[in-house]
Amino acid sequence: MDPVRILGTGSFVPPKVLSNFDLQEMGLDTTDEWVIQRTGVRERRIADPEVTTSDLGYEAALRAFDMAGVSAKDLDLIIVATITPDTCCPAAANWLQAKLDAPQAVTFDISAACSGFIFALNVAEQYLRTGAAKLILVVASEVMTRTLDWTDRTSCILWGDGAGAAILTLGRNGPEILSTHLHTDGVNGQDLLMPGGGSRTTPISHESVDKKLHVLQLIEANASFRVAVRHFVDSIKEAASFNNVAVEEIDWFIPHQANLRMFQSMAKTLKLSMDKFYITLHKYGNISSASCAIALDEAVRDGSIKKNDLICLPVFGGGLTWGSALIRWS
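Structure tokens predicted for Beta-ketoacyl-[acyl-carrier-protein] synthase III:
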């Protein structure tokens, strides 16, 4: 069987920039230096009020189509990874399908928090290998800034909005997805939590709003940091071991863009140069599932990724979820 190939990638971030200095002017008890030292984030992108997750995904998809040389009419399947869909029903993928005018494609969402892009790639692999689909659009898209308590400086400083996309098929030419690896831990999944919106807190009420149950809550941040670093490192080792390559042989690490200090800890643990880490965190913040998809597309388009480069995409997110993908860019 031919391997799974990436025909094209795309990404899109909203034009509106919110800097750390802007947060200060909004009255948040923070400074540019404080945020940079703790996270590495200097600014993030904010979607306009009328812009939805599927709108961002649409723009990223168009760029992926252009690189791949295909159209929406060629698709068999559309998968959207998101925790901020346009609506709970229909799925964000259905809204995106309508905007792309691709009625022939099957559509559904995947919810795996910041690991969503890799989970979606893994699902797409299965459809391709079984022959259930021949051409798949994978989109990771988030409007994270609408999930935030803008008075909580431990959380609101981190997040931004945007989307990344990839077109996948089986073939003999193009970048090859060598493997994907997924893990979950529901027992410890409440460290990153948005209680409202599901059956646990429905319908919305004055009481649930007053209790801030409809905003993202980051619990035990220090413990989550250590857990995330461990799973990032293990995911990189797993991908390398599965493909019989040394970690040192990997040319680029494009992780979920969570925290610069995490990347530094990962590099120290693995004895790697930070020059091998492709980082967009400083200009976009954490865009949950979309962050490594956006970073991958930018690394391709700015020429950082060269032919025959080996690329690892390690991810970690709420749920808990984590994993990795290893790609040979050929």
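The first helix runs from residue 20 to 25.
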